[in-house]
Design goal:
Blueprint (H helix, E strand, L loop, with lengths): L2 E5 L2 E3 L5 E8 L7 E7 L6 E6 L6 E3 L7 E6 L4 E6 L8 E12 L2 E8 L3 E5 L2
Parallel strand pairs: 2-11
Antiparallel strand pairs: 1-3, 3-8, 4-5, 4-9, 5-6, 7-8, 9-10, 9-11
């Protein structure tokens, strides 16, 4: 059973940066596509970014393209989301997930979810 634990959230001013980490245990991430999702208060969960397990291709929602970077370190069994130039609308609970493939920026056929880490962007 794969377990995912996110960290790195917090309070940051607009224009600031955060790096989220998602550490996996129980099994290797090597064979999973990985995705980051976020859920703002009162809104549905949305796919932010996805990284393929086959060739490492990365995909981003239009709202974060050019500002966020997803990466995966198989040796550390960890997925990262580097978030730069943060905006107030980026706030929410961020979740990582493991699944079978990326459908654009959305992870498909999700097998496992992390518990989430909260991001607040405010002056």
């Amino acid at each position: 059973q794969l377990q995912l634990v996110e960290s790195g959230g917090g309070l940051v001013q607009p224009g600031g940066s955060l790096r989220l980490s998602c550490v996996a245990s129980g099994y290797t991430l090597r064979f999973y596509a990985m995705g980051w999702f976020r859920q703002a208060p009162g809104k549905e969960r949305e796919g932010v970014s996805c990284i393929s397990s086959t060739d490492g291709s990365t995909y981003y929602a239009d709202s974060v393209k050019g500002r966020f970077t997803i990466s995966k370190d198989n040796a550390k069994n960890t997925v990262y989301l580097q978030m730069n130039s943060l905006k107030p609308e980026d706030r929410g609970d961020y979740y990582c997930a493991a699944g079978s493939s990326c459908k654009g920026n959305v992870l498909y056929a999700i097998n496992y979810w992390g518990q989430g880490t909260q991001v607040t962007v405010s002056a």
